[in-house]
Design a protein that fits this description.
Layout lengths: L2 E9 L3 E3 L12 H11 L2 E7 H7 L13 H11 L2 E5 L13 E4 L4 H10 L3 E5 L1 H10 L4 E7 L7 E2 L9 E8 L5 E7 L7
Parallel strand pairs: 1-6, 1-7, 3-4, 3-6, 4-5
Antiparallel strand pairs: 2-8, 7-10, 9-10
Helix pairs in contact: 1-3
GO molecular function: 5-amino-6-(5-phosphoribosylamino)uracil reductase activity
Protein name: Dihydrofolate reductase family protein
GO biological process, one term: riboflavin biosynthetic process
């Protein structure tokens, strides 16, 4: 059984993207990228929405106009071997980037729990819109945030506004660039697990 995790990079005021949808402000330093790389070594499965799925296609082949660092090459190798579930009613199976990928036309909380139950290691929900139903339902086991020392004043919130959570800190790390990595788990356990 996998550990259902919601991981994201977030501004100090709680947003994953600014009001225009930009998230370039969250580009990680080398040390933060190394922490992401270490984290991804434990991820067996990703659940993500269509936009994020299409964005992450970047890691399937090195662009011809740039050269990846060795850390980026390793991240790409790890990413390509993860089982990915793309929540989309508009993508087709022909548009999937890998044989490790599967379409989920209607992503329900029950389907998220089923994916986690059938997986091993870390099962990560990637993206606040995709994760919101699972967060509200209380089935997320680990919340992992990379908090960037920037205030955006608005944008796409990392957590649903109607979520009510009681969490306990299980790990933290502060990077030289001011980014703080924190991990939390629900204080009262997880619903239905």
């Amino acid at each position: 059984m996998g550990t259902l995790t919601y991981a994201t990079t977030v501004s100090l005021d709680g947003y994953v993207a600014d009001p225009s949808g930009d998230f370039q402000w969250s580009a990680p330093s080398e040390a933060v990228f190394a922490a992401h790389l270490e984290r991804m070594r434990h991820v067996s499965t990703e659940i993500l929405g269509r936009k994020t799925y299409e964005l992450m296609r970047y890691w399937h082949s090195e662009p011809s106009d740039e050269q990846w660092s060795s850390a980026e090459q390793e991240f790409a190798k790890l990413w390509r071997n993860i089982n990915t579930f793309a929540a989309s009613s508009t993508l087709t199976s022909e548009q999937l980037a890998s044989t490790h990928d599967a379409l989920v036309p209607a992503l329900t909380v029950d389907r998220i729990v089923e994916i986690a139950r059938e997986a091993s290691g870390v099962v990560e929900i990637f993206g606040p819109t995709t994760a919101a139903p699972a967060i509200r339902a209380g089935v997320v086991e680990v919340f992992e945030f990379f908090i960037v020392p920037k205030v955006l004043g608005g944008g796409l919130p990392a957590l649903p506004q109607d979520a009510r959570l009681e969490l306990k800190l299980t790990d933290h790390r502060i990077f030289d660039d001011g980014t703080v990595h924190v991990r939390y788990s629900p204080t009262h356990g997880v619903v239905g697990r």
